[in-house]
Amino acid sequence: MAVKKTEAGGVASWRIILHLRLFMCKKREQKGCADVFGAHESVCPPRNRCREGLHEAKEKIGGALFGFDISSMSGVIATRAYTNYFHINGQYPQGGVTGAMPAGSFLGTIISSFIGNKISRKAAIQIAAFIWMLGSILQTASNGIPLLCVGRVVAGMGAGIASAIVPVYQAEIAPKEIRGRVVSLQQWAITWGILIQYFIQYGASFTGGGPQNPHQSTLAFRLPWGIQIIPATVLLVGMFFVPYSPRWLAGQDRWEESIRVLANLHGHGDIGHPKVLAQYREIEDALTYEREVGQSPYKLITQPHMLNRVLLTMAIQMWSQLSGMNV
Question: Full-prediction pTM beyond 0.85?
């Protein structure tokens, strides 16, 4: 009990100091950024654009993975190697293979929030990358339609988790003035993933005598599916070098770590920087409100003033998929 009290007292003292710094910086903000312990700068230090750019580049790979998965079938179904090896006759077997990916994505999206809240956004993205790698391996090694469908379901699950968690993580580490721009670039990364995979499949279709050769090598479809492992590996390893979400850390009552992450991202390590303290206060207010209201996010989105918006976004996504744009 003594240890718990000491830890609680330490957290309380830390938060009192942060509030004091925020108050003093607001009082002196007309003179520039100031540290209440004596350091004074006439000009606020700029954002660490290099650090932010590297973080965003790694996270955009998560969007590109979804693009890779979307177009992983489009360029190979017309090759003789694919149709001969898997004995695809008729629209229903191919429909099952194609539909396996969005089925896995649906499952991944459902479990993404539980994983992201429980073990952190960072770890959830790494899990998604690992699942994607496993799915790509199963597809590449597939010897029939059943294993191919399993591989696509697994890969789709990884893509679903990544596509749901990456925008959340980006929004929580990006400065608020560019937050919308950063999150919207997720769709841009997805389209780049689609384009890159199309070109890879186009090049691979000429292996083994070309797409119309009745004896074309299976490399025509195994190569594009195998290459998908590379960006997933880069994402898995790269996420070891990015910080945890400060919002998630604060939600776990790890306030000291949260403010240090904010300082490293937006204040060059200075926890007294006004931007750092403002974002810290924003996180604290949001968490306080959520805990006082005591409603789960699922209940919030079903309230009358939010339900129409949720249904509208769901309808847009549903009809865009049913139009065949991702087949």
Answer: no
Gap between the terminal Cα atoms of the chain: 59
Per-residue model confidence as pLDDT tens digits over 91-133? 888 889 988 998 998 899 899 989 999 999 999 999 999 999 9
**Whole-angstrom Cα distance, residue 57 to residue 174?**
12
Output the CA–CA distances (angstroms, integers) from residue 34 to 18, 40, 265, in the order listed.
13, 5, 18
Beta bridge partners of residue 40, listed in sequence order: 34
Tokens linked to 157: 């699950």
What does each C-alpha distance from 88 to 80, 94, 96 come to in angstroms? 10, 7, 11
In the beta sheet, which residues pair with residue 34?
40
Among 160, 52, 176, 31, smallest CA distance to 101 is for 160
Q: How far apart are CA 282 and CA 246, in angstroms?
A: 11
CB atoms within 10 A of CB 288: 10
Give residues with Cβ within 8 angstroms of 100, minimum separation 6: 148, 149, 150, 152, 153, 156
Residue type, 169: Y
pLDDT, tens digit, 9 for 90 and up, residues 235-287 = 999 999 899 999 999 999 999 999 999 999 888 888 888 889 988 999 999 88
Residue 80 near residue 212 (C-beta atoms within 8 A): yes
Cα dihedral: 39, 283, 63, 319 (round 10): -150
Q: CB under 8 Å to 229, separation ≥6 — which residues?
A: 133, 136, 137, 140
Separation of alpha carbons 55 and 67, rounded Å: 19
137 closest CA partner among 199, 64, 230, 51: 230
Q: How confident is the model over 3-57, as pLDDT tens digits? A: 333 344 444 444 544 554 544 444 444 344 434 333 333 334 444 555 555 555 6
